[in-house]
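tryptophan synthase, Ceratopteris richardii. Tokens?
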Amino acid sequence: MTALNLHPSITPDLSLPCHPLKLQSSFLPMLRMSKGCHVDFPFGKNRCMSVRSLQKHGFRRKVTLPDEDMPRQWYNIIPDLPKPPPPPLNPRSLQPLCPDDLLPLFPRALIEQEVSLQTYIDIPEDVLDVYSSWRPTPLFRAKRLEEHLKTPARIYYKYEGFSPAGSHKSNTAVPQAWYNAQDGVKKLTTETGAGQWGSAIAFACSHFGIGCEVWQVRASYDQKPYRKIMMETWGAKVHPSPSNVTLAGRSILEKDPSSPGSLGIAVSEAVEAALADKETKYSLGSLLNHVLLHQTIIGEECVKQLAIIDETPDVIVGCTGGGSNFSGLAFPFIREKLKGKLNPVIRAVEPAACPSLTKGVYAYDFGDTAGITPLMKMHTLGHDFVPDPIHAGGLRYHGMAPLVSHLYELGFMEAISIPQIECFEAAIQFARLEGIIPAPEPTHALAAVIREAQHCRETGEEKVILMALCGHGHFDLSAYERYLAGQMVDLEYPEEKVAKALSSIPVVA
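Tokens:
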């Protein structure tokens, strides 16, 4: 049912009687507002309730924010934590990394954000201006999915697919490109899995007039050719990874000419290329603190949107590969949890074939395969681990963001893993009921949400479930083709491969 939206300037005082008002549109029957501002819906019995009640109980399918209510600050969770996260280490000295050590890779402004102890950081006006082309993003209620599942739970999803690149990745690509442009950087190098991040940074670099070179994981490069074309349309140069362009890539190809690649390998190649040119910097789409910081605009908007409809989340779900979209939604709610304002279960969902949180070890490890990056304490499967080529290419990373790993160790969140066939079953169900074809990555969150909703059906609990739907799957249709043709298989957790990779992680006392 479509809700009646009243312009703020004509919202009546519900304590006073009001004159009858008839409203007519091309898609709704005539509605009559009478004393007490009730709305009579001529759809059958028990369909009459106040405007306030309509909002409170979620009969509105979409909750939006006015442009002027878009958050103007990012939220930094680190100062609010009871214990600071372990620092990154210099891989040679094994001592805490000095911020200046990162200057060959990042502009100073982003390094300052990486180590900042400010709770809120202002979003530059130029960045807000670009954000405003798609933000604030809507919060939807999945009413048709609820009805299909016959669950008393109320399911909401924060949808990030309206950005130019089609995912949440633009939330950090835009500020990263802007800060680099301000620093006089001529080109950015980066890696990408499924291509969501590569597309986002290519768009952002084009917007601010700097070059972009992308190493895309070979498995996704082959599966998703239109992502490559999208990046090239925005002016990026795209290589399959491992490639013959870098020493790191050539060394992998010598060992395995048919390597499907991994995000760890692609990181090595992009970092190597950045270090070779003084006018080039490196850009990362997940993992680091400043990347997670930029994504918190998602959760900050969502806190406001749920307040509009007087809802409080009981369960918050997001998929995790490196951790950026999950953090963007969850961190502002963890802040509210720390203040004692709410107490949701916060659940990360990862692929069964690459389960860094649920089966990885919490240890210092490299963020890349070649061992070029600083050592970060995180949940890892070993930097040498090359995950099987699942269709959720953005989740094929050996480690989890250090900050997410730290929160997991502190007990602020939980994690589960789900195989890909169950995820695509959930995606097909969602697409046919709600209309949006999700990217393969958030199908993991969808599968977990459906599990939770079915549990509520069994227990009768009226939980409010909130999910991060981080992007659309319009360029991932080859994965859907394989699923619909019955050709998709579940790839198991390769214990022997992981054990071998874990044996090579650095020993840090």
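The chain has three domains: 8-60, 103-124+168-289, 130-166+295-502.
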